[in-house]
Amino acid sequence: MDDILTIRDVATRLKLGERTVTAMLADGELPGFKLRGQWRLRRDHFEHWLASVAAGANVQAITSEIMGGISQSPHGAIPPAPVPDELPGQDDTGQAMNLLTERVPQAELHRRFIRALGAGVRSHTDLEHKPLEADLATPLPSRVRLYIFNATRPPGGRPVGEHKVQLIVPGQKRGQRASFDQTGGRIVLLAGYAAEEDVFVLWDAGLYTDFAWSRNVQVKATTIIEATAGKIAEQERRLRPAGGDAVTETLLACPPARLADALVRRVEITRDRMARA
């Protein structure tokens, strides 16, 4: 009997769709880990989880217990899950991130964004340089300046499955405040990329000015999960921009195949907000 289970194995056992199982793993409702970008579960962890949930345990609580290697069951402690075959990333403050959070280099963030837009990209600057500037074809905005960050799941202190980006612009140092470069008539895009789920997030860049070094900007787990189902998910957040009144931000999340449509929608929503101001 195999000691490692795949998403299909678990979906068959639970009589759920594979997409549902993937969403549960991404949301911390199943005790899984990633190897080379693929979700896997230890059989003993899954069996313990299933027995506990069937007995009435909270799915997220028992998952957290198993992944922490701590169990109060009479069968004794559950050993910790194997570590993925890659080193933990470092967040922008230099602190170790959750081992189950995948991060990609800046140039790769740019490459995936450009690749998702496909033929809509006429030209772009060096992928190694941040921010990335691109000229796009109609109906996309013609000239954009992209600030894209890894959207990671912080280890503790936040709702399970919530993702965040940390705002740091080139040249900004710890303790300094900064803003995005709005010059040159380009539309500024603030984006995040959740690598494990292969989901892009688009915030309203105009609402983020004069921000502190490494400011956190969040997106809910449910929004990410909805995007993994192939939709352009929308989420509203209540913000108080620097020096301004409270405002409702609408952020978008989408899979790569919907990025072009989401980008058009992003510009429309931002323009509507500005017209109402």
Structure in words:
The structure is a single chain. The chain is α+β, with helices and mostly antiparallel strands. It has 7 helices and 14 strands. The strands form 4 sheets. The protein has a 7-stranded mixed beta sheet, sandwiched between helices. Strands 1-3-2 form a 3-stranded antiparallel beta sheet. The protein is elongated. The termini are far apart.
List keywords for this structure.
7 helices, 14 strands, alpha+beta, seven-stranded mixed beta sheet, three-stranded antiparallel beta sheet, single chain, elongated, 27% helix, 277 residues
Structure described in brief:
With 277 residues, the chain is of the alpha+beta class. It has helices at 7-14, 18-26, 43-54, 59-67, 106-117, 221-228, 259-276, and strands at 4-5, 32-35, 38-42, 121-124, 132-136, 143-150, 163-167, 177-178, 187-194, 199-203, 211-212, 215-219, 233-239, 247-254. β4 (121-124) and β5 (132-136) form a beta hairpin.
Sheet having the most strands: 7 strands, mixed
Uncertain stretches: 70-100
How much of the sequence is in beta strands? Answer: 25-35%
Read across the widest sheet, the strand sequence of neighbours is 4-5-6-9-10-14-13
Give the topology string: H per helix, E per strand.
Answer: EHHEEHHHEEEEEEEEEHEEH
- Gross geometry: elongated
- Helices, by number, come to 7
Helix content: 25-40%
Mean pLDDT: 84
How many strands in all?
14
Gap from first CA to last CA: 63 Å
Q: In angstroms, what is the radius of gyration?
A: 20 Å
Return the structural class: alpha+beta
Q: Multimeric state of these chains?
A: single chain
